[in-house]
Design goal:
Keywords: Ribonucleoprotein, Ribosomal protein, RNA-binding, rRNA-binding. One of its GO terms (biological process) is translation. The protein is α+β, with helices and mostly antiparallel strands. Helix content is 20%, strand content 35%. A hairpin with a 2-residue loop joins strand 2 and strand 3. The chain is elongated and about 80 Å long.
C-alpha cells in the first residue's frame, strides 16, 4: 500500500489574525488564510498558496499527505486537517494545518477501494453496493496508507463484507467498529408485467364511456320521416302539360 508520506513542500507566512475583511484582503492578494497548530506549540495565523494546497488535496494521498511546512525559517512536518470551499465557485477559503511528530501515532480516516468482480454480480445478476467508504485507523505518520484495498470477489447474496474482513497490516490499528458493513450485494427490483386476468379485471372496474348519439340525415331517413313536399310552381307546370 502506498503511504501518505510525500515530498511536498508548503510555504506559510505569518499574518495578523483579524476579521472577515482581513481574510478577503488575503484572498485578493492570491493567498488564503490558514491556521497552524499542534506539536505542543501555540496556534499561529498564516497565509499559504491555494495552488499548492489544491495540489496536495488532489494527490493520491489527499488530505492525509504529510508534507514539509516552511514557516519562519523552520521546517516541520505537517498535514491538512480541515479545509473550506466557497460553495458557488468552489475556491478554497481557509485551511487548518497540524504539525506532525513523526514518532507519534495519528488517528486518520483512509478510503476503502473495492477490488475484483463480485460473484453475486457475475452469476446472480445483483449489484455491488458500497456502504462504508472510509475506515478510521491509528498508526505512525509514515505508515498512513493512501487507501485500503478490499477484495469483493467472494460476495454473493446474503454475504456482507465488514471492517473486520479488511486486510490488517500489523502497523495499522483499526478504530472503526469491526462489525460495520462495508459492502454487499443487492438485487434489482424487476417490473412484473400484468397477467391477462389482471388486465380484464382492471377493464371491468373502469367506468363505461357514455354512448355518443349521432344526429343527421341518416337518422332522419331511418326513422321514416316524410320527404319534403314539392314546390307549388313545379306542381302547376306538370298539370298544364297534361292538358
Amino acid at each position: 500500500m502506498a503511504t501518505a508520506l510525500e515530498t511536498n513542500r508548503l510555504e506559510a507566512h505569518p499574518r495578523e489574525s483579524g476579521n472577515k475583511n482581513d481574510a478577503r484582503r488575503v484572498r485578493r492578494d492570491g493567498k488564503i488564510p490558514a491556521v497552524v497548530y499542534g506539536a505542543g506549540k501555540d496556534s499561529l495565523a498564516v497565509t499559504v498558496d491555494p495552488r499548492v494546497v489544491t495540489r496536495i488535496l488532489h494527490s493520491e494521498t489527499g488530505h492525509n499527505t504529510i508534507f514539509d511546512l516552511a514557516l519562519d525559517g523552520e521546517r516541520t512536518k505537517a498535514m491538512i486537517v480541515d479545509w473550506q470551499y466557497e460553495p458557488i465557485k468552489g475556491a478554497l477559503l481557509h485551511i487548518d494545518l497540524k504539525r506532525i511528530a513523526m514518532d507519534k501515532t495519528l488517528k486518520v480516516s483512509v478510503p476503502i477501494f473495492l477490488k475484483g468482480e463480485a460473484e453475486g454480480v457475475k452469476t446472480q445478476g445483483g449489484i455491488l453496493e458500497q456502504i462504508q467508504r472510509e475506515v478510521e485507523i491509528e498508526c505512525l505518520p509514515a505508515d498512513i496508507p493512501s487507501h485500503i484495498d478490499a477484495d469483493v470477489a467472494h460476495l454473493v447474496f446474503g454475504t456482507v463484507l465488514r471492517v473486520s474482513d479488511l486486510p490488517h497490516d500489523p502497523k495499522l490499528k483499526f478504530l472503526s467498529d469491526p462489525n460495520q458493513p462495508v459492502a454487499h450485494i443487492i438485487s434489482v427490483k424487476e417490473e412484473v408485467a400484468p397477467t391477462p386476468e389482471a388486465v380484464a379485471a382492471e377493464a371491468a372496474a373502469a367506468p363505461a364511456e357514455p354512448e355518443v348519439i349521432k344526429k343527421g340525415k341518416q337518422e332522419t331517413e331511418e326513422e321514416g320521416a316524410e320527404a319534403p313536399a314539392e314546390k307549388p310552381e313545379k306542381a302547376e307546370k306538370e298539370k298544364k302539360e297534361k292538358k
